Task: structure prediction
Amino acid sequence: MESSRCKTFVRNEMNKLGIHDMTVELGKIEIMGELSEKKLQMFDAALRNAGLELIRDKKMQHIEKIKAAIYELVYLEDDLPKPNNSDYISKKVSLSYTYINTVFSEMLGTTIEKYIIEQRIERVKELLAYTELSLTDMAFKLHFSSVAHLSSQFKKLTGVNPSFYQKLRNRGKVKP
Result:
């Protein structure tokens, strides 16, 4: 749940099931009391119809918390000083970095650091498409050590440099 609209939807669906004593946060619902299997299935069906998913597996819950923390790092924390990724994520999910990196790698087949880089490059694509920021500003905003570092990571993942990507994007050849 990344938006207030998702949270409102979840609250409304829970209220329809007669569940009013709950806390709804980013990626987490806390219900005071028990929920029958039938109500849980009904809730799960409502979520799926809306393109959402109920995650019951503990490891997948950890993965979703890690992804939420990374989302915050890449999309919400860009104007703050660069945090230490491992410390930031560990603090957000309240688990040791060694454990969460192992679970993340085991479940998704990539490391947290590689995933962060992929998300940062996706953000660069969006910035190239929808803003007039310079590569220097993007590098600073997304905590790359330099424009050269941003460009090399971008090319490594997309196969083209940011300027060429932007030209292709402006011609309608690629989508962000």
Q: What stands out?
A: The first helix runs from residue 4 to 16. The chain has nine helices and two strands. The beta strands are 22-25, 28-31. The chain has a mean pLDDT of 85.
